[in-house]
Amino acid sequence: MGLFDDDHHGHNHTCPMPIDYAVDGEKPFIGSISFHKFNMILSGGCTVLVILTVFILMALHATHLSRPREQIKIMKISALLPLYSITSWLCLAFPHQAAYIDPWISVFESAALGSFFLLMCEFISTDSRTELDLFFSAFQVPQKKGDKKRIGGLAWFRKSWIAIFQYPPIAVLIAIVTDITEAASVYCEESSKPYFAHIWLMVVGSFSLTFAITSIFGFYTALKTELKGHSPLLKLMAFKLIVGLSFLETILFTILKSTNALKPNSTLTYGDVNFGLPNLIVCLQTVPFALFFPFAYSHKPYLLSCQKASGLLTAEYSQGTYQNLPEETDLLRYQATGAIKFAFNMATKAKDRQSRTDVYSRSQNTNYDMSYESDRPSSNEHLMLPGYGQNVYAGYEPAYDPHGRSPSLQAFGDRRDGPHGPY
């Protein structure tokens, strides 16, 4: 079923997978609808529900971004479910191209696994990589009973990092090689013969995945005390369990097909049996996992009121004018409101300047529009930005500046505070 099939080159390595088959069965499944169309409707509805649920969760995190380094990783992990569901729907909707689409699920999984590892690192140290290295330099890896050999925490951390992040590039490489070998008709998903690429790619992918998962669990086990309160195991199971269930279901379908308990008939085509049913189950089971995600990766601990109560505010929140904001107000809304006001004021001033005549400008013999000075506050304290500790005047860029500053400093203000303000 490859793109480069050539029937003139005969060989004994024949793939048992049919090259062409009907998408719709001979008999309808319900009413006048074939199973393939029914499957697309049902799986598509589940996929839309998963997308909406995860999008709402990601939007809640994005609008309450009190700890960006953690929450951005949570949003990356959450993206796995809709990507998984969309990819599964594409496989059942286009069964002839399923072999090209399916391997990319592992790529999404590897990205989520890497983001989860980095999320655990953020739970340990939220400031910098240097602080993380200092933590693991003093960390003693728990050893088994009777093992007297001590393992340095920093070396162990770096080995864990390599063991986990070897999976994403290998997953991408396997997906690319799968597509190439499928197009060249040397992949053959239905065969485990050594002269087909399927068995070798499956072995390499399974070994890489097992290596990464083992390292993740080892990392969690060693740091269980430090990670207490973050429920890392619950977070891992929220997205990893669906992949494990899919693997077990693949084994189950293989057994059913090998014993002829499940085979094509007048209602189910070859594509329905091999791609439609397995991916239908995947789309169905992503729904409860999507509903569970808001509990495992809840946005509530990141509300400003919760952050203040727990004393876990980041530097952006613990400094500056955010101390005086209402409890329900967060950084994103405050900055967005300020940006809208600034843009509106700038547009108004631009329109006013355009209405001035050239005669007036020449008579004044200057390009500096003094109307901007009327809007300039005498004090810049209300523009104090958290994390800077200086007054920053985000004013306009005049053509003439009496202080002789460069255009860049005219636009953004001088960050040096003096006895007479920012100038």
Automatic annotation (TrEMBL):
GO terms for cellular component: membrane. Its main location: membrane. Residues 357-369 have a biased composition (Polar residues). InterPro entries: Ostalpha/TMEM184C (IPR005178). Keywords: Membrane, Transmembrane, Transmembrane helix. The chain crosses the membrane at residues 38-60, 81-98, 104-124, 160-178, 198-221, 233-256, 276-297. It is found in: Membrane. Residues 413-423 have a biased composition (Basic and acidic residues). Residues 354-381, 396-423 are annotated as: Disordered. It comes from the Eukaryota. The keyword Transmembrane applies. It is a multi-pass membrane protein. PANTHER family: ORGANIC SOLUTE TRANSPORTER-RELATED. This is Organic solute transporter Ostalpha-domain-containing protein. The lineage of its organism: Eukaryota, Fungi, Dikarya, Ascomycota, Pezizomycotina.
